[in-house]
């Protein structure tokens, strides 16, 4: 299976996927850590793919969405963004709306707490 | 050309900024993965430009990636963007 097939299969099989450096329990980059932290805190059930474990996936995910950086968040097969975009969408409430629209379970209270702490 | 100057030249070539800040944050990441010792690895760009109006977040980021070009994007490790 090529890296592109592998990526497509992972995104199709999981409603929420984060391609990141490290894992959700042990991130190895501040930007990956921030996005994984938001999802963890909001109680979102997501699959994490550690790109540091597979050079093919590390380069492949950049080509997949024509996006040069990691982390990358996918919801229901759709690329949402990287660290800056997810942070902005969390604080604006757009991420809540996206999860609601896509039927992804999350804690609205936790999302509100993030916004209160960063308001 | 120093990286900051090159980034500024490329961004001013693609946009007519009403606000442009290019901040080298490499020192904050010294010794961290991605620090290549160049002192030019981690960057933050704050850009406001009429060309970005009406674009989605993804489109704005893509427009900046394209303006900087693969050569700059390939040389830096991290790029935080604050676009409006």
Automatic annotation (TrEMBL), chain A:
<keyword id="KW-0479">Metal-binding</keyword>
<dbReference type="InterPro" id="IPR014434">
    <property type="entry name" value="Monothiol_GRX"/>
</dbReference>
<keyword id="KW-0001">2Fe-2S</keyword>
<feature type="binding site">
    <location>
        <position position="29"/>
    </location>
    <ligand>
        <name>[2Fe-2S] cluster</name>
    </ligand>
</feature>
<feature type="domain" description="Glutaredoxin">
    <location>
        <begin position="16"/>
        <end position="80"/>
    </location>
</feature>
<keyword id="KW-0408">Iron</keyword>
<dbReference type="InterPro" id="IPR004480">
    <property type="entry name" value="Monothiol_GRX-rel"/>
</dbReference>
<protein>
    <recommendedName>
        <fullName>Glutaredoxin</fullName>
    </recommendedName>
</protein>
<comment type="similarity">
    <text>Belongs to the glutaredoxin family. Monothiol subfamily.</text>
</comment>
<dbReference type="Pfam" id="PF00462">
    <property type="entry name" value="Glutaredoxin"/>
</dbReference>
<keyword id="KW-0676">Redox-active center</keyword>
<dbReference type="GO" id="GO:0015036">
    <property type="term" value="F:disulfide oxidoreductase activity"/>
</dbReference>
<dbReference type="InterPro" id="IPR033658">
    <property type="entry name" value="GRX_PICOT-like"/>
</dbReference>
<dbReference type="GO" id="GO:0051537">
    <property type="term" value="F:2 iron, 2 sulfur cluster binding"/>
</dbReference>
<dbReference type="InterPro" id="IPR036249">
    <property type="entry name" value="Thioredoxin-like_sf"/>
</dbReference>
<keyword id="KW-0411">Iron-sulfur</keyword>
<dbReference type="GO" id="GO:0046872">
    <property type="term" value="F:metal ion binding"/>
</dbReference>
<dbReference type="InterPro" id="IPR002109">
    <property type="entry name" value="Glutaredoxin"/>
</dbReference>
Automatic annotation (TrEMBL), chain B:
<dbReference type="InterPro" id="IPR002634">
    <property type="entry name" value="BolA"/>
</dbReference>
<protein>
    <submittedName>
        <fullName>BolA family transcriptional regulator</fullName>
    </submittedName>
</protein>
<dbReference type="InterPro" id="IPR036065">
    <property type="entry name" value="BolA-like_sf"/>
</dbReference>
<dbReference type="GO" id="GO:0016226">
    <property type="term" value="P:iron-sulfur cluster assembly"/>
</dbReference>
<comment type="similarity">
    <text>Belongs to the BolA/IbaG family.</text>
</comment>
<dbReference type="Pfam" id="PF01722">
    <property type="entry name" value="BolA"/>
</dbReference>
């Amino acid at each position: 299976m090529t890296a592109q097939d592998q990526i497509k299969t992972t995104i199709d099989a999981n409603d929420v996927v984060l391609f990141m450096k490290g894992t959700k329990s042990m991130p190895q980059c501040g930007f990956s850590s921030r996005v994984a932290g938001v999802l963890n805190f909001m109680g979102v059930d997501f699959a994490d793919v550690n790109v540091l474990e597979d050079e093919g996936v590390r380069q492949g995910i950049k080509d997949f969405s024509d996006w040069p950086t990691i982390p990358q968040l996918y919801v229901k097969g759709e690329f949402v963004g990287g660290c800056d975009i997810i942070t902005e969408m969390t604080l604006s409430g757009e991420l809540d709306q996206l999860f609601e629209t896509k039927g992804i379970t999350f804690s609205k209270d936790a999302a509100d707490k993030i916004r209160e702490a960063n308001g | 050309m120093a990286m900051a100057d090159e980034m500024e030249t490329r961004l001013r070539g693609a946009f007519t900024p009403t606000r442009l800040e290019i901040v080298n944050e490499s020192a904050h990441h010294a010794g961290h993965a991605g620090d290549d010792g160049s002192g030019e690895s981690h960057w933050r760009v704050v850009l406001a430009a009429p060309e970005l109006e009406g674009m989605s977040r993804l489109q704005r980021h893509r427009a900046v990636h394209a303006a900087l070009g693969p050569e700059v994007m390939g040389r830096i490790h991290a790029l935080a963007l604050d676009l409006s």
